[in-house]
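#struct-pred
JK: can someone run the complex with pyridoxal-5'-phosphate? inputs below
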Amino acid sequence: MTEFDPDTLSFTPFDAAPARLIIRPQAVVENWQRMQKLSGKARAAAVVKADAYGLGAEEIVPALYDAGCRDFFVAVPDEGMLAREVAPDARIFVLSGVWPGTEAQFFDYDLVPVLASEDQVAFWTNAVSQSGEHPCALMVDTGMNRLGLSVDEAIALANDPTRPASFSPVLLLSHLACGDEPEHPLTRQQLESFQKVAAVYEGIESSLSNSAGITLGADYHFDLTRPGISLYGGSTGNPDFKPGASVVTAEARIVQLRDIKAGEGVSYGATFRPTRDTRLAVVAAGYADGFHRSLSGSGVPLRQAVQQGAMGFVNGHRVPLAGRITMDLTIFDVTDVPDGDIRVGDYIELIGENILLDDVAKAAGTIGYELLTGLGNRYQRIYV
Ligand SMILES: *Cc1c(COP(=O)(O)O)cnc(C)c1O
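RT: done, structure tokens with the ligand placed:
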């Protein structure tokens, strides 16, 4: 049982991956269609920054494009250039704006900078007065205090008679700080401030809502919505709105099964000491694969106050994590899995349809966004 037996283990190259991500672009499309429907009269864009939340923009952008999505948001010009290759005539917005020296990338790849300060506006105005008209977008800060022109600056700019014709914003946007807390007073305030600015930019499209904002109703939709996490199966934070289809399964192979006696210690620090004879499964993924050490079954000082730790799922059984997660390996307690149901070479699901992304995030003390974007590059990625 615990031995490596070449006769009973037949590895295909696919199986040989120590850890793998099975990614379903069609599930992203389904989730996008759901957000499109929920956006009412507004068009739904797709936020594909950070390599489509870690899941692979090269595969996910074309799937969304084929489904009819024509507006994409990325964080930086490099991501925009990559998206351009797979979405030839889509509109691609770059959220981090323009920086002197990067303007050629915007012109050459037809990317739209989201300008976020008066300096950026001045720089861009000058750049387009030399190169000719090129669309831009304007970020307005309505209360998050991250990026954007202030409400007053944005209104002054709209009414500025010296604004050259070559300066042509096509989208006005703002971002909600507390969209996932519908009762938070800031959400309503941000909406009202944004309405005020949108009114002076007549004829220019506007966009306020991320995934959470979309669930707040028609007032929040404007012309274009910007769902991100909801496309990838993550929670919007709104408890009345269930997460969409699961998009990724992260799983790692059992490299060894090991039987230990009651009272022995497990992993670094020997912090897990089972009180019964125990069978352990050692699997080939660790914190270097984005399986946070804070998910450990025991012995993580930072969160000693909370008894948690992640679960795994193997052949129909939920199994608890045993002891500390290490860089490349994680140990599960599989004592309760019947003998015939587990063998070396099987994969244990770390995140997926049975072990939900948001539950794992909660156990790690973080959010689904961070888990997804931190999955690491050691996984074999399989798109199905
Ligand atoms: C990341 C981001 C989004 C997407 O947010 P989700 O919460 O993932 O839906 C939308 N707009 C801006 C400006 C963003 O930075």
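RT: quick notes.
The chain has a mean pLDDT of 93.
Residues 47, 49, 95, 175, 210-212, 226-230 surround pyridoxal-5'-phosphate (CB under 6 Å).
JK: thanks, will look after standup
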